[in-house]
Structure formats: structure tokens, C-alpha cells
Specification:
globular; alpha/beta; eight-stranded mixed sheet; 41% helix; 8 strands; 273 residues
Amino acid sequence: MDSVRSVQVIAVTGGKGGVGKTTVAVNLSLALSKLGRRVVLLDGDFGLANIDVLLGLSPQYTLGDLIEGRCELSDVLLSGPGGIRIVPAASGIQSMEHLSPAQHAGLIQAFSEIGDSLDVLVIDTATGIGSSVISLVRAAYEVLLVICDEPTSITDAYALIKLLNRDYGMDRFRVLVNMEQSPKEGRALFAKLAKVTDRFLNVNLRYVGAVPYDESVRRAVRKQRAIYEHFPRSKCALAFQEIALKVDAWPLPVSPRGHIEFFVDRLVHNSKR
């Protein structure tokens, strides 16, 4: 039986709003695409979509149409900057924020139809620790926690790690520091979070790196462009370039883990070889 290539699935999350999670998801996707990877970016904030707005795109269909059965996933895919494709969420539709477990499962399984046409799926989750966040994070292979230098950012990241570890047995997380103010701040913030998790939880945290604070981000947002594309030589864009090289070297999933996850059919196929 032939091997089917696994898809890397990365959930970008953090618990707290305002840490720049969407900026990280968008620019990491662009940097991975620049490395030659076929990237799909999923807007996981089902009720308050913002990736299409951030990039000045006008979707014809959204995840709301997919959930309601009005279209296929391939119809929802939107061409974005730098060759990435985007799955836009619905905006201002309250029912999308309260999907049933069966709807979450159906949504995750729908991605199997595009498994042959991508290498990496990046998921920008909503803020908080609601059911959609938990569902998407558990369905991913890698969890990338975004934190910044705010006390509530560390507290919320810890709360999310604790919930995922205690209730779902997840024990491996990667951490990225955003809006770093000085070269040493990233490592110091990671150490602060790791000190608490080491003391109270049995989890493995890995430091991915830091993205420096850069005024260009705000200017790019105002122009509805990604900083990686609009200011490619900015210190922020160069940091994403370095981080993408590390992310690209992460191992791919090799076997199913026994719960609902993206592209599980491919993992089942390979594990039966």
C-alpha cells in the first residue's frame, strides 16, 4: 500500500485576546509558503471572522455556508497573498459560535477532501477557552501558544495549558513570544511560563522564538496587508522567516491518536501499511 503524505496541522492559540495571534497565523503562513509549502490558513474564530478583513479579501462563501450545506470546502477556499489559501469564517452569525460536537467533527472531517493539495494547515483559533478553541486545538498536531509581556497573557496561556492537559491529556506545547521589546525578553517570558507549568503540570513546553515589536505591523494592518508581504525587510518579517524555518523542520504526524483530528484518514492509511 502506498504511503500518503501527512499534512502538518498547527493551531495558533493563546487564551487571551490582544497577543497578536492572527498576525502570527497570517505571517507564519506566508513565510511557510515562501519556503515552497502549500499552505491553507483556517480562520477558527467562527463567529467573528477577521482574517479576510485583515487582508482586504471578499469571500463569496464562508464556513457558515459549508456548515449549512450550501457549498463544499473547495468552494470556500479563497486565494490569499503569497500563494496561501484561506478558509474564511462567518462574521456576526451567533449560531456559528455554538456549534454542536457533531458539527465540529463534520467541519474537521470536511478537510479530508483537500488533503492532497496542501502541506500545512495553520489554524487561527478564537480567543478564550470555548468549545470551538478546544475542538480545533485537539484536532491539530502542533499547538503554538502565542504570549506577550502582559501578566494576563501568561495567566491565560497557563489556564489553557492546564485545561488541555488535565481534561484531554495533552502534554506538548510550543511557545512563541510576540511583540518582544528587547532581545532577552522572549526567553525570560518563556522561562516565566515554564516555571509555573514545571511546578504544577506534567507538560513539555518548547520555545520557538520571538517576534519583535515593530511599528510596521500597525501600518500594514491599516493598509489591509500582511507585514511579511508589505514590509518584507522589516525586523518582524525577518523574524517570521526564521521561525518558519524551524516550523518547517517539525516532525509530521505518523499515526492517529484516537480522537477527531484533521486528515485522520491519511494517518489511518499510513498506519495500516
